[in-house]
Amino acid sequence: MEVVFNWAQDCSKSGGINATVFLGDGASDLSPVANATGFFSEWKVVRGNEDFDLSLPLSDVFDCCGHRFYICHGHRCALFNGYYALVAAAQNNKAEVALFGHTHVPCYKNENNILLINPGSVGRPRSRIGATFAVIECEPGKPLEVEFWEIGSQGKINRLTHVS
After folding, report:
1. Mind listing the pLDDT tens digit for each residue in 23-47?
2. Do residues 124 and 141 lie in contact, with contact meaning Cβ atoms separated by under 8 Å?
3. Secondary structure (3-state) at 148
4. Containing domain of residue 141, as a range?
5. Are 136 and 144 in contact (CB under 8 A)?
6. Quick check: is 164 in a domain?
């Protein structure tokens, strides 16, 4: 996780981070890693099924650059049976984007006009790709641009060219 915090710190120095989001499973790691790297941010955090801090919300909604985001871990959305509950939750919250975790596998889909994004996992990856995260670039009045990144050998961060 430290390599991502260091990378994010470099990005923030160039004036580029509006929001940082953590989608559950390992929330207790955020503070120690922030202290170790010196990267501090106002995190939007939701509780995953492996988090035990009951003060963390199960879901949240926020607006950024004219886009509305619904965030949740996803463990209460029956993701392995499809995205119906996740899409419905995003629609009920008038969000155009649903960010979720739980599967720990990167995902980028559009279902019923809701953009579904799972960044994968930095600390507990379950995909063949390995450790991944996502960066969403948003500017008012422009479509979102989503990039997925992998953490390769020796902590080298590489842009992924395809995620489904």
Report:
1. 999 899 888 877 777 777 778 999 9
2. no
3. strand
4. 2-159
5. yes
6. no
Q: What is the pLDDT of residues 81-120, one digit of tens each?
A: 889 999 999 999 999 999 999 999 999 999 999 999 999 9
CATH number of the domain bearing residue 81: 3.60.21.10
Joined together, the tokens standing for residue 14 give 């160039």
CA angle (159, 162, 164) in 5-degree steps: 130
What letter represents residue 75's amino acid?
Answer: H
Other beta carbons within 10 angstroms of residue 155's beta carbon come to 12
53, 10, 55, 4: which is closest to 33 by C-alpha? 4
Q: Provide the number of structural domains found in the chain.
A: 1
Q: Which of 67, 74, 101 is nearest to 88 (CA)?
A: 74
Distance CA 71, CA 89 (A): 10
Residue 123 maps to a domain: yes
- Among 5-14, 102-111, 129-138, 146-155, name the one with the lowest average pLDDT: 5-14
Examine residue 52 and state whether it is found in any structural domain, yes or no: yes
Number of neighbouring beta carbons within 10 Å of residue 157:
14
DSSP E strands in 3-113: the ranges are: 20-22, 43-45, 59-64, 67-72, 97-99, 107-111
Q: Which two tokens stand for residue 153?
A: 């050998």
d(Cα 103, Cα 123) in Å, to the nearest integer? 13
CA–CA separation, 99 and 95 (whole Å)? 10
